[in-house]
What does this fold into?
Amino acid sequence: MLSRPVERLRERFDVAIVGGGITGIWVAREAASRGLKVALVDRGDFGAETSAATTKYIHGGIRYLEQYDFGVVRESLRERRILALGAPHLVEQTKFIMPAWRWSKPGAPILGAGMALYDLLSYDRNREAPSSLRIPHPRWMSKKKLLKSVPWLEPSGLLGAFAYHDTLNVHPERLLLAYAKSAEAAGAVLVNHCRADAFVVDHRGEQLVVEGIRATDLLNGESIEVHAGVIVNAAGPWIDSVLATLGRDAGVGVDRSKGVHVLTRPIGGGTVRDAVFARAKSGRHVIVSPWMGKSFIGPTDTPMGGEEIRADRDDVRSILDTVNSTMGRSERPLTADDVELTTVGVRPLIKAPGSEGTYTASRRHELYHHVKQGIENVWTIGGGKWTTARATAEEMVDELFRHELKRLREVKTNSRRGAAFGTFAWARDAGPYLADAGRELVEAGLSTKSAEIVARLYGTEYVDILHLVLGDRRLAEALPSGDIAAQVVFAVSSEGARTLSDIIDRRLIAGTVGRVDRESLEWVARFAAPLLGWDASRAEREVSREDARRRAADFSRTA
It folds into this structure.
């Protein structure tokens, strides 16, 4: 469970981590598992700003081959397998269809060569994998078979398509939370809504010896000093902002790239089961994924400045125009009225001289040791991606043991074979477990829909939800999304949720599958308020604040 133990931040740690996205969470898990005393703080909720706003895939990055980023692709394909085997209940293998038109750039022969290379680089993809997670070789689809599978495609000039597989990260916010729970189970102290404001520094001539961080608990305004032997700056897109508090050039640059996705009515009436790589003649592309009975489409990849993260009219228009340009006349074009939800995240890309833009920028990661800038005991992680976060963390902790923490005893462990918290069994087909859990939950009074949601989201922790329902039958009450009241209780009591957004967007699925109206916010607040110590007046204010925030972020209401 995630207990948000703020008072423990006053202890002495080996490692203090700034940033609770997927990279910071994995560093905490890796470091704690290898015997280090770890603290992590994040100014918001875990994964709230970027790691939950993904395309929902753990993937090799086939398009990175266009930039000759072979190392990143190979590492990603290796990690794709490791993450899938470690959390079979939260992933699914998904077929991707990459159409080829006569005008396609690159053309069909080059696409075919790329597919062959992608397949070659994933030579170990099925090692120890159960049948449900095995990935077949890519294959060519004829135009006839393609249009039968994806009838909404524009047939004019269509040659056929390449079909290949990658791994669907069904609910990335829940998988990140599973890793956070793994980190805490290994001994890490994780605190959300706690902002790192500055470093604790001892000035020794020209050297800055960092001894910790100064943080603020944003829920009560209390200041806290977190002392540690070494600091890992894993703030993703904001690593430069964290370092700026040192008052000197730390030698790190970051390009921020905005990635927007939209959730729409199901293109093709919901009959298409495969993800489609939709590339327009303009060269833009998006992925159209069938997800939760709808189409999840994106991402954009555009440079951004400042710190405001928001989808705008141009972002959504770009996505819709790209998809519409690949549609045949039989399919009604998407409009802003079809957009039910927008999500936006920011990629932390390494600033590279001569870069032609964020689209072609490498997704590799970089570890910065700031001793060359006269800053001791600070590391920064730049770049990287969701899929490779485990590998990045492994490398980061290796470096800590080689440098600042070399005198500490290391516990030997292997995160390449470690299951995420709540996983029924490592490298096993989750289907039978999910079916058994679902039956038990239905017998307790849940609908089939709610039972399936609880079993998948919580894995072995479904029993905790079950016990809550058996203790109070009112907790089986459900939202339209299928989430039940027991999940709200569990989110606050055992998963560190402290705001309505924490609960709705990253503990439940309600905030990810469509609009959340005020009535639903009030329903969640009714169960959360007593646990959070909110009186009726406070609960009403929180509902109003969250409703206003969601309305402002709703593209269809602001366009």
About this structure: Residues 90-169+256-350 form a domain with the D-Amino Acid Oxidase; Chain A, domain 2 fold (CATH 3.30.9.10). The chain has a mean pLDDT of 93. The first strand starts at residue 12 and ends at 18. The chain has 16 helices and 19 strands.
